[in-house]
Design goal:
CATH topology: Rossmann fold
CATH superfamily: P-loop containing nucleotide triphosphate hydrolases
Strand order of the largest sheet: 2-3-1-4-7
Order of helices and strands: EHEHHHEHEHEEHHEH
CATH architecture: 3-Layer(aba) Sandwich
Number of strands: 7
Shape: globular
Bound molecules: adenosine monophosphate
Helix content: 40-55%
Low-confidence stretches: none
Radius of gyration: 17 Å
Largest sheet: 5 strands, parallel
Number of helices: 9
CATH class: Alpha Beta
Mean pLDDT: 93
Structural class: alpha/beta
Strand content: 5-15%
Length: about 210
């Protein structure tokens, strides 16, 4: 199964991606995760990307496309793949098309996860993560017992820099301006599945499986 997961920030792409790759036993290629790893490791790419990420802007296409090519050369995509957060604009979509065409492959489906904008903002602004055990809380919908402290190990919870409200609003604007045109691009190509991402993770996953005919 060759899939792309498309959607605004905080539509739940990461959560659904984890479930989808488990179900279909395919590699998960998240450009956001790859970039965060580069930033954490302090590579040259990480240093170049960090400012864009902290502001919520897109990292330049040449950096992203090189990073994706490198990744694809080192993983087995015979069974398929799930791209999560890539492509993010028409230029990247063309690059992906070219890559697939060269290998005589095509996409099976593009899953477009959409929800109400205010819900997206609450999900992001309220998110707090434990730096030790990675448990993710939300101060509105899943708060820790003691404010700012992880229930499991007592560590002080942190907020991702790109979850601050002004950054979240910028990321949504960037999505509307640069990524949303891909919805039509893939609709015209007959690949798009529109999915309501406002339910619980399990509810959304059930919808995805049904739409994929599982
Ligand atoms: P994500 O976790 O997918 O929301 O990505 C976090 C940040 O990484 C984004 O706000 C961008 O700054 C950057 N990023 C991730 N994927 C891409 C991409 N395909 N193109 C450009 N920038 C990206």
């Amino acid at each position: 199964m060759r899939l792309v997961l498309l959607g605004p920030p905080n539509a739940g792409k990461g959560t659904q991606a984890d479930k989808i790759v488990k179900q279909f036993d395919i590699p998960h290629i998240s450009t956001g995760d790859l970039l965060r790893k580069h930033v954490a490791e302090g590579t040259l790419l990480g240093q170049r990307a960090q400012g864009y990420m902290d502001r919520g802007d897109l990292v330049p296409d040449d950096l992203i496309i090189d990073m994706v090519q490198d990744t694809l050369e080192n993983i087995d995509i015979e069974k398929g793949f799930l791209f999560d957060g890539y492509p993010r604009n028409p230029f990247q979509a063309e690059a992906l098309d070219d890559f697939l065409l060269e290998r005589d492959l095509g996409l099976d489906r593009v899953l477009y996860l959409h929800t109400d904008q205010e819900l997206l903002i609450r999900r992001a602004v309220g998110r707090r993560t434990c730096p030790v055990c990675r448990t993710v809380y939300n101060i509105f919908s899943f708060p820790p017992k003691e404010e700012g402290i992880c229930d499991k190990d007592g560590a002080v919870l942190i907020q991702r820099p790109d979850d601050r409200e002004e950054t979240v609003r910028n990321r949504l604007k960037v999505f509307e301006e640069q990524t949303a045109p891909l919805v039509e691009f893939y609709e015209v190509a007959g690949l798009l599945l529109r999915l309501d991402g406002s339910g619980s993770p399990d509810e959304v996953f059930d919808i995805i499986l049904k739409e994929l005919g599982e």
